[in-house]
Automatic annotation (TrEMBL):
Coiled coil: none annotated. It comes from the Eukaryota. This is Enoyl reductase (ER) domain-containing protein. Gene3D superfamilies: Medium-chain alcohol dehydrogenases, catalytic domain (3.90.180.10), NAD(P)-binding Rossmann-like Domain (3.40.50.720). Residues 17-344 form the Enoyl reductase (ER) domain. It comes from Podospora appendiculata.
């Protein structure tokens, strides 16, 4: 039986600052499919992916209209006929990367995409918010640090957007590994990032970091969510055996004119660099693999670190699931003060 829910809708692709293409509407949700779980969403993630999806520039995205919401933490509300009740009991807490549809009161999710959240992490709203941010932002950071770059103690890394959602995760995980961290952020965030362990933070409005890093002999890994020309600059600061890991195309949305650009030629260039004779230098584009065994294992590792108090996930802002809240999230992404992950509160506690 269908249920009426409130959900976010991107009705068309547009760069119009009025954001009239973004709204929260009431709409029917069917009962979960055979292998689906219906989840009551507490918090959904908000990220550069949502902004790029509303602009129509997210790689391989759905056509409009679509419901945004890349990740969630929530509670199992109903099971499809062939879903495994022992894996997702009604009332249990789950996290997921759904790519779409999480900014909604209820969502039907393929069971394989869900990861159980242990009871030790469900006791407070603060912990649930952190788990919501782990599922996409920090799982992406963990995958790049542990599996793609394989950061080791004593290595030097450079992280664009240290203050960002994924950037903050990258910084904490590289520091846990014993690496020396350099990166970029707004000047207003430099002191707290350096107090938290970054060796040197640069202003992204100039290119001073390029000469400074070359002067150190280059770095072992660069993590770059900006894409486009930024990947050429990032490649230029690699040491002889360094790796450049690209994972987004934020540069267009963050530029002054915000003109939409296709990321594809630049992704192709990044990936083909690894096919050329580069000496020891490598390149990679990282994609999170929602629900995969690797993602499940990474989430288990991250939730373990959170439980042990070895990581704390900063939450920069939380907006309510209503049209004004959602438009404000789109409007202020990339320019608001603070550091860390962004969330949409669907049914979690008020701040
Ligand atoms: N490939 C994957 O699997 C995957 C998974 C998750 C996310 N992503 C991608 O990762 C990217 C990161 O997104 P996010 O949501 O975590 O964003 P974010 O990093 O939180 O974005 C904001 C960051 O950008 C910085 N910034 C603002 N203006 C800038 C400018 N003009 N130049 C350089 N940096 C600037 C901000 O610094 P200040 O706040 O200090 O000003 C802040 O650190 C997105 O493109 C998303 O699609 C990819």
């Amino acid at each position: 039986m269908a249920t009426t829910i409130r959900k976010a809708v991107i009705s068309s692709f547009s760069t119009d600052p009025s954001l009239s293409n973004v709204a929260v509407v009431s709409a029917p949700l069917p009962a979960p499919g055979k292998k689906e779980i219906q989840v009551r969403v507490l918090y959904a993630g908000f990220s550069g992916a949502d902004v790029n999806m509303a602009r129509g520039t997210y790689p391989m995205q759905r056509k409009a209209p679509l419901t945004s919401g890349y990740s969630l933490v929530g509670v199992v509300a109903a099971l499809g006929a062939n879903a495994d009740a022992s894996r997702s009991p009604i009332g249990s807490y789950v996290a997921a990367v759904t790519t779409y549809d999480a900014q909604a009161e209820l969502v039907n999710v393929a069971q394989r995409l869900l990861c159980p959240v242990p009871p030790e992490l469900t006791g407070s709203d603060s912990l649930l918010r952190q788990v919501a941010a782990l599922s996409l932002d920090w799982a992406t950071a963990y995958g790049m640090v542990e599996h793609t770059a394989r950061v080791q103690a004593g290595q030097k890394v450079f992280i664009h957007g240290l203050s960002g959602a994924v950037g903050k995760g990258l910084m904490s995980l590289c520091l846990l590994r014993g690496a020396t961290v350099y990166g970029t952020a707004s000047v207003r965030n430099h002191a707290s990032l350096e107090a938290a362990g970054a060796t040197k933070v640069f202003d992204y409005r100039n290119k001073d970091w390029i000469a400074a890093l070359r002067a150190t002999g280059g770095v072992n890994a660069v993590f770059d969510p900006l894409g486009f020309e930024s990947w050429d600059e990032s490649f230029s600061v690699l040491g002889e055996t360094g790796i450049l890991v690209g994972y987004g195309g934020n540069q267009a949305a963050l530029s002054a004119d915000k003109k939409p650009r296709s990321p594809w030629p630049w992704i192709a260039k990044l990936v083909t660099r690894s096919l050329l004779p580069l000496g020891g230098r490598r390149t990679s584009f990282y994609f999170i693999k929602p629900g995969s065994a690797g993602w499940q294992a990474d989430m288990a590792a991250l939730m373990g670190l959170l439980r042990e108090g070895r990581i704390t996930v900063p939450i920069k802002a939380v907006w309510d699931l209503d049209t004004e809240g959602l438009r404000e999230a789109h409007r202020s992404w990339g320019s608001m003060p603070g550091m860390g992950s962004l969330l949409i509160r669907v049914a979690g506690e008020s701040a």
